[in-house]
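User: Could you go from structure to sequence for me? I need the amino acid at each position, not a summary. Structure tokens:
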């Protein structure tokens, strides 16, 4: 009986624990990736980001945190629009690019539905632009982000004097 239990335990380790450990090892962030331009930050954010509602991941309706260190190490992160925007802002600020958060309403989706994206001043041309998890195709100017969009009543959070 004892011997059988040991065999079962060993088989369980081989079948379940070993593959999980191997998977975690292969996904473990290792190198610091270069993130000094807005293009590099944009690319790294969308490679790293997995959209998951806060209520599913954290058990609360709203959780706001940064995943900048994870992105710098080449890892992935799960969050929603605010975690994406906060991470974007922090990556920009850490390389000296003025960046802040913009909160908007999306009344066409649902009354009171809030969205957040990251705004920054592009050091290449001095134009205010945005990186937005709902717009993975590229970097837009702030003007084009709001123009003709479903975003209403923007509130800029932490915008530095430019
Ligand atoms: Ca969040």
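Assistant: Here is the amino acid at each position, in order:
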């Amino acid at each position: 009986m004892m011997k059988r239990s040991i065999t079962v335990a060993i088989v369980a380790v081989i079948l379940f624990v070993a593959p999980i450990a191997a998977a975690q090892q292969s996904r473990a962030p290792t190198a610091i990736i270069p993130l000094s331009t807005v293009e590099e930050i944009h690319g790294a954010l969308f490679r790293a980001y997995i959209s998951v509602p806060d209520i599913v991941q954290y058990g609360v309706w709203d959780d706001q945190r940064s995943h900048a260190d994870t992105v710098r190490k080449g890892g992935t992160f799960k969050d929603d629009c605010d975690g994406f925007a906060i991470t974007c802002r922090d990556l920009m600020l850490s390389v000296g690019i003025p960046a802040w958060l913009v909160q908007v309403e999306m009344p066409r989706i649902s009354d009171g539905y809030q969205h957040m994206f990251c705004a920054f001043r592009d050091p290449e041309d001095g134009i205010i632009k945005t990186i937005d998890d709902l717009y993975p195709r590229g970097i837009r100017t702030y003007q084009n982000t709001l123009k003709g969009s479903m975003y209403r009543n923007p509130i800029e959070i932490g915008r530095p004097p430019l």
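One structural detail worth keeping in mind: The two ends are 74 Å apart (CA to CA).
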